[in-house]
Amino acid sequence: MAEYQQVTVAEVVQETADAVSVVFDADFDYRPGQFLTLRCGPVARCYSMSSSPHVDDRPQVTIKRIPDGYGSAWVCDNVRAGTVLDILPPAGIFTPSSLDDNLLLFAGGSGITPVISIIKSALSQGGGRVVLVYANRDESSVIFASELRALADKHPDRFMVIHWLESLQGLPTPRHLTALRPFTGFQSFLCGPAPFMDVVSQALRSMGVPRDRIHVERFISLSGNPFEETVEEPADGDEATVEVELDDEQHTFQWPRNKKLLDLLLENGIKAPYSCREGACSACACRIEQGEVKMLQNEILDQEDLDDGIVLACQSLPVTDEVKITYS
């Protein structure tokens, strides 16, 4: 069972007809673009933080009600000021390495949630330009419309918002997005429905944007519950050796063949990042520098990630006798 904390809800803000922001009466460290895992009744769900650690006094997540979505409906129907929720620590790697970078941001619908956290942080603490392309069904479904307008008015030389409304313009295509060619030297961040992100990724690659400048956030509903007890299978005697670099420190362990890498690290007191523990988020992503592993499940990494050596620690087992891993 993952370690979690209980937080009290300070207020619930109705952002649109089907989206709310849940503001916590709490104080914890997080980075722009990260997410929280919440216990939503009998299930767990990951929701991005729409607050900025550099601007906002209280952390918050923003949740859009999804048709047939149990977690989002549970929050919208049950959470009020004073509700106490169980949360896992902030997690995720959808965050700029430098807030001074020039940023080209794409959001579709509720995908604006981690993106606005990045926007507010970059405009407050950084010095680069920020361009946002925000796609929605119609004007009434635009989350944070007034806040985005205020930020554009406050930072006219640094922040530009391009709204794309399906009701007026139809669905965006890669050809439409080639108008953004002047900004393809920026770091690109994408969050939204899968078809939207596929179109954006295709457009960026057609314009020659390198893979390492395209950052994608995807969420898939968890089938398990990291808040509940799990029973681990006993490890057999066959072991590999793993070297791990995390937070500029080197660690070496004997790695049983049927023990997941994340479990091994946590058992040895290493504070490796994680959230869902079932391969449905990227919080535990790390890179293979030497050797080979196999993943039991992967719902989040694409083939280019795999080709770059990125794996999920919560699903990785050793294949070769020696493996080197880095989290840098």
TrEMBL record:
Residues 2-97 form the FAD-binding FR-type domain. GO terms for molecular function: 2 iron, 2 sulfur cluster binding; flavin adenine dinucleotide binding; metal ion binding; oxidoreductase activity. PROSITE patterns: 2FE2S_FER_1, 2FE2S_FER_2, FAD_FR. The keyword Oxidoreductase applies. It holds the Pfam family Fer2. Its cofactor is FAD. Keywords: 2Fe-2S, FAD, Flavoprotein, Iron, Iron-sulfur, Metal-binding, Oxidoreductase. Residues 240-328 form the 2Fe-2S ferredoxin-type domain. The keyword Signal does not apply. Transmembrane segments: none annotated. This is 3-ketosteroid-9-alpha-hydroxylase.
